[in-house]
Amino acid sequence: MQNKILVIDDNQDVIKALKLLFLLNDIDCDGATTPEQGLELLNSQAYDLVIQDMNFSQDTTSGAEGRALYQEIRALNPDLPIILLTAWADLETAVELIKDGAADYLEKPWREEKLLASVNQLLEMYRLEKAQFQQQKQSRTRTNKLNEQFNLAGLVYADTAMLSLLEVATQVAHSDAPVLITGPNGAGKEKIAEVIVANSAYSDNAFVKVNAGALPADLIEAELFGVVSGAYTGATKSRIGRFEAADGGTIFLDEIGNLPLSGQQKLLRVLQTGEYEPVGSSQTKKVNVRVLSATNADLTAAIASGVFREDLYYRLNMIELKLPALVDRPDDIIPLAEHFLQGHKRFSSGATNALKRHNWPGNVRELQNVVGRAQLLAQSELIEASDLGLKPNQTNSSANTGLSAQDIQNALQSHDGNVTHAAKSLGLSRQAMYRRMDKFGIAR
């Protein structure tokens, strides 16, 4: 889509010259000779950038007219890039407007290569910011829809990676299809299983969780399928297994990759027929159970090495949900950390930045432990970076260092509400600052 610029200047020759320059560089350009005409065009059409003069009345050099026009354009569109065309007499006013958020200023007569370089850079920045704003708007719409329509079981999230995963999880929740949740330890696989159950037809029935990785290999079968008295040494009485306890509901098998081959065979049979025999029994039992499973292991590699059945893998993996590591969903870090805080304590900006920079090898579980420890060690209500106990070498240089609402509010408070100065302190343009204020619902 071709970019479009509006030039507001009382000199028709200036408008003609700029129109020709931009035409030769594949940029559409309109012109207005008065502030009123320019504002009328801005109200009726969409522009990507404005170039405005600072004076419009004959023998006027104060720049007051340019300042007034700038403020009116800002009121119409706070994010629109504005380049000021100045003469030496109104340079001071132009510099003041730059501090207030104008994108650039150029002295007359301008150098074409410098003007084009500034225009192209600002157009690209504006395009990226508009695309980012649109993505954020779409993300908010998707998030609101998800939160309104489904029970998310108290799950805290903000990252679009989690949003996409939850949309799939809630979509498949109503079916009886087996779901395999894959991802690293501590990333929250069990919580995803809870979301699936909460939105399934079995939400009011039994929900049995089994951590196969925490059970001795020789006891897993008895745990899952039950055991009769005398089946083996120590089995002094009969007891039902987890599948029977989950009959009519859902069973969640965590760390499924640790299940021994004999247990895998029985599990495959349950998935295929709903039938099994307790350990030490020849009596066949039948259950109706929805199976959810999870693993941090590479099951395809386990199949290749002969320790996991390929037919079971495809039975379990009718639908796979790949849960990203916490470092790969960085927008979740601060919301989760604040969720884990108890009482009235809060994070300093230094602590927030340290949390964002950490690579979280232990994922959400590590984050929860770090926040809990910091809450105990902090000497005041403000948790500092030093209270977190994070190792400085465990940082993720490629992680998204996105800012939180608290970062934005702190910066605004530190600069007495001056958006331009607050944006500069955060390394943002004024336009980008407004985007984030809108994102977090902070009043302009």
UniProtKB/TrEMBL annotation:
<keyword id="KW-0804">Transcription</keyword>
<dbReference type="InterPro" id="IPR002078">
    <property type="entry name" value="Sigma_54_int"/>
</dbReference>
<keyword id="KW-0547">Nucleotide-binding</keyword>
<dbReference type="Pfam" id="PF00158">
    <property type="entry name" value="Sigma54_activat"/>
</dbReference>
<feature type="domain" description="Response regulatory">
    <location>
        <begin position="4"/>
        <end position="123"/>
    </location>
</feature>
<protein>
    <submittedName>
        <fullName>Sigma-54 dependent transcriptional regulator</fullName>
    </submittedName>
</protein>
<dbReference type="InterPro" id="IPR001789">
    <property type="entry name" value="Sig_transdc_resp-reg_receiver"/>
</dbReference>
<dbReference type="Pfam" id="PF02954">
    <property type="entry name" value="HTH_8"/>
</dbReference>
<keyword id="KW-0597">Phosphoprotein</keyword>
<dbReference type="InterPro" id="IPR011006">
    <property type="entry name" value="CheY-like_superfamily"/>
</dbReference>
<dbReference type="Pfam" id="PF00072">
    <property type="entry name" value="Response_reg"/>
</dbReference>
<feature type="domain" description="Sigma-54 factor interaction">
    <location>
        <begin position="155"/>
        <end position="376"/>
    </location>
</feature>
<dbReference type="InterPro" id="IPR058031">
    <property type="entry name" value="AAA_lid_NorR"/>
</dbReference>
<dbReference type="InterPro" id="IPR025944">
    <property type="entry name" value="Sigma_54_int_dom_CS"/>
</dbReference>
<dbReference type="InterPro" id="IPR002197">
    <property type="entry name" value="HTH_Fis"/>
</dbReference>
<dbReference type="InterPro" id="IPR009057">
    <property type="entry name" value="Homeodomain-like_sf"/>
</dbReference>
<dbReference type="InterPro" id="IPR027417">
    <property type="entry name" value="P-loop_NTPase"/>
</dbReference>
<keyword id="KW-0805">Transcription regulation</keyword>
<feature type="modified residue" description="4-aspartylphosphate">
    <location>
        <position position="53"/>
    </location>
</feature>
<dbReference type="Pfam" id="PF25601">
    <property type="entry name" value="AAA_lid_14"/>
</dbReference>
<dbReference type="InterPro" id="IPR025943">
    <property type="entry name" value="Sigma_54_int_dom_ATP-bd_2"/>
</dbReference>
<keyword id="KW-0238">DNA-binding</keyword>
<dbReference type="InterPro" id="IPR003593">
    <property type="entry name" value="AAA+_ATPase"/>
</dbReference>
<keyword id="KW-0067">ATP-binding</keyword>
